[in-house]
Amino acid sequence: MLKCRAAWRRLAPLARASSTLCRQNAKRAVLRNERRPDLNCSQMSTAPSGGGRENTLYVVLVGAACLGGGVYAYRTVLGDKQRYQERISEIASRTRRVEPEQQKVQTQTEPADPDSETAVEPTPVVPVLPEHAPYLLIGGGTASFAAARSIRARDPRARVLIITDEQDLPYMRPPLSKELWFSDDPAVTETLRFKQWNGKERSIYFQPPSFYVDPVELTKVENGGVAVMTGKKVVHMDVRGNKVRLCDGSEITYDKCLIATGGIPRNMQVIERAGEEVTKRTTLFRKIDDFKSLEKISRTVKSITIIGGGFLGSELACALGRKSADVGLEVMQMFPEKGNMGKVLPEYLSNWTTEKVRREGVQVLTEALVKNVNFKEGKVEIKLKDGRVVKTDHIVAAVGLEPNVDLATSGGLEVDSDFGGYRVNAELQARSNIWVAGDAACFYDIKLGRRRVEHHDHAVVSGRLAGENMTGASKPYWHQSMFWSDLGPDVGYEAIGIVDSSLPTVGVFAKATAKDTPKAATEQSGTGIRSESETEAVAGKMSPTLSTPIPPVAKDDYGKGVIFYLRDNVVVGIILWNVFNRMPIARKIIKDGEQHADLNEVAKLFNIHED
Amino acid sequence: MSYCRQEGKDRIIFVTKEDHEAPSNAELVADDPDDPYEDHGLILPNGDINWNCPCLGGMASGPCGQQFKEAFSCFHYSKEEVKGADCVENFRGMQECMQKYPELYPQEEEAESPPTDSDPAPPSTSEDQLPPDSPSAS
User: Fold this and answer.
1) Contacts of A92 (CB under 8 A, 6+ apart)
2) Rounded to the nearest 5 degrees, what angle is found at the Cα of B59, between the Cα atoms of B58 and B65?
3) Torsional sign, CA A608, A610, B2, B7
4) CA distances from A176 to A171, A179, A288, A353 (A)
5) How is residue A297 annotated by DSSP?
6) A510·B15 Cβ contact <8 A
7) CA A9 → CA A6, A15, A71, A83, distances in Å?
8) Among A489, A607, B27, B66, which residue's beta carbon has the most beta carbons within 10 A?
9) In this structure, what DSSP letter does residue A339 have?
């Protein structure tokens, strides 16, 4: 096809030229024939012979031109064919050159493969990385893993390929800023195992390496499986061709694709502008490596400052604050709001939380806007707009997440201008055969409107939903995800829905007793991570264990309770403050979306005075 | 007695145990058992097994997922007097597979009796936060 088209294109000007030549000749011949009678009407006898000689000349000329054109065309097409063959063989040799490289990388990342023959022998049977994956998941985080599990549960023998640019297998993030810091094990940065409140130990990795199939085996293994390609970044997406291109040039085609690329931590402009001495003393916290490096730093420096008063900043501040007493570390936290979680909790609770964080050993500077940052006399100097100056050794910037939408341009995918992230519909679909889940998805929530959620449980719920829809379910986002935060062992809360402090709230509180703490809650339900406990209800009852008594905090006005967030008199968000194992009720209230006249009556449903 | 306070747009109510003793008159919308969007437990409304139930952990999706599904399906639809008596082969296959992955299926968790239909408590007692496929010890 292409050959013909290319050949025709080349012939076209030639054809035009020769046809105009023909036409011109014909015209001239006609004109001359026409004119001749006028000019030579009296000399009829001589006219035919003279015209005849000229005619043959024209015929010969035209014939020669046509012949020449034909010869030229033939040679061009032949040359094109040759050039095409050369091109194809060149591309083929290029992919062959890339594959041995991939094998070398692959053998390095394989866990227990010491004497890989492919690295030694010149021409062995080279294992080929998959060129096609029925289910391709871009990104190796929580959403991706949840989708992989969902796909495998629903499509028997499914072959799922996860591509991640991290070096680690899929793992969960919440312990990186919580449980891992409270571990007694000095080797925790290596094992990445943590003991939960109730003594149950587990790894942050969702599954050990033996769960996964080698990517090389993926197409052959009988019952399918989940394979993870680490250290590879997808740089280009061809939606029409149903394929992606990796950083090393190789291409993989897919039937269904999930984009779960998460995001990267935002940095502050003042820090980026401050020069290398400052930036190398700044941590943007998100991955396992960040945890490892911050843990090391916390043991060596004298002072750490956390910029940011949201979930991550406050949790890290509390975690480091608890360490501060042991290792003589000064921990400071600064943010523009009036109190910790200022954008989430109503002001009275935010103030209460700030006091709590202070009691964990953190110097909290509220209403702090950073003007500039410099490196002076061996210390990082942070100047605030109101004139305060803070000198510290290391900065942790926890100022938000920038969703990763690198594939939007090449994939022709829409990016949301309000929330960021890929814009997807209520069923998490961006385009045919492409879904997006997790932090990077700006989706339409049927109950609460368009949103983008950056919480762990949402990654699980949306990943699972995307997996269901990739296997033909067509379900919208329906099961509300929840989130939780613990600020030390004494105060914790679970929340669901839209929890924005700018909304009007109604809080119903009771006095807390010794039994109302996160520690007691997990001990009683026998689960580690609190959000497990609500699905435990389906799995069966757990026998309660004795909870160790914790003295109640005096002057604790907001011991435990329920806070409702209202939008147009409808409850769109609920926080369960030191009240646990009641998420299903909260979920039901939000699902109903009713206008309740008296929220105290609704609060009764939670039985906040009971355990 | 309960008392109320207003701080700007935020309302705070303090209640005692007695205040909350009377049953709530808040109305909740009745749940539709056939709602296609709703997440179901282990058994779907039509009687099939919901392999995607978080309660199963990763049992149906791991390397031995196929064997697990066969064994459990056989048990679920078994009409024998001793339920599952005709499924010994399937369970043996499942156990053989699990023995190949001791990391995922720790051996102290011996062939537990499969759950009965009335009690939707599956062999593995875990989670929704995707911990290892190995049935976690309670």
Assistant:
1) none
2) 115
3) negative
4) 10, 7, 7, 21
5) H
6) yes
7) 5, 10, 16, 16
8) B66
9) S
ipTM of this complex prediction, to 2 decimal places? 0.77
Q: Given an 8 Å threshold on Cβ–Cβ distance, is A208 in contact with B103?
A: yes
State which residue of chain A sits closest to B8, comparing Cα positions.
A504
**A567–B contact, CB cutoff 8 A:** no
A146 with B130: Cβ contact below 8 A: yes
**CA distance linking residue A567 with residue A570, whole number of Å:** 5
* B17 to A506: CB separation less than 8 angstroms, yes or no: no
β partners of residue A180: none
pLDDT tens for each residue of A235-294: 999 999 999 999 999 999 999 999 999 999 999 999 999 999 999 999 999 999 999 999
| Chosen from B15, B103, B133 to mutate, greatest number of chain A CBs within 10 A | B15
CA distances from B18 to A197, A516, A597, B2 (A): 32, 19, 21, 9
The token pair that represents A11 in the structure block: 């012939």
Note if the pTM is more than 0.80: no
- Interface A:B, Cβ pairs < 8 A: 188
Look at B28 and A592 and tell me if their CB atoms are within 8 Å: yes
Mutate to test the interface with B, among A479, A508, A562, A596 (most CBs of B within 10 A): A508
Which helix (DSSP H) or strand (DSSP E) does residue A375 occupy? Answer: strand A370-376
Reduce the secondary structure of A265-321 to three states and give it as a string. Answer: ECCCHHHHCCCHHHHCCEEECCCHHHHHHHHHHHHHCCEEEEECCCHHHHHHHHHHH
For residue B27 the two structure tokens come to 């109305």
Distance CA(A562)–CA(A187), nearest Å, equals: 39
| Residue A331 DSSP code | E
Q: How far apart are CA A361 and CA A363, in angstroms?
A: 7
A515 CB neighbour count, 10 Å cutoff: 17
For residue A582, the distance in angstroms to the closest alpha carbon of chain B comes to 15
Q: Supply the DSSP string of A535-549, one letter for each residue.
A: HHHHH------PPPP
Ramachandran quadrant class, A339 (left: phi over 0; alpha: psi -120 to 50; beta: rest): beta
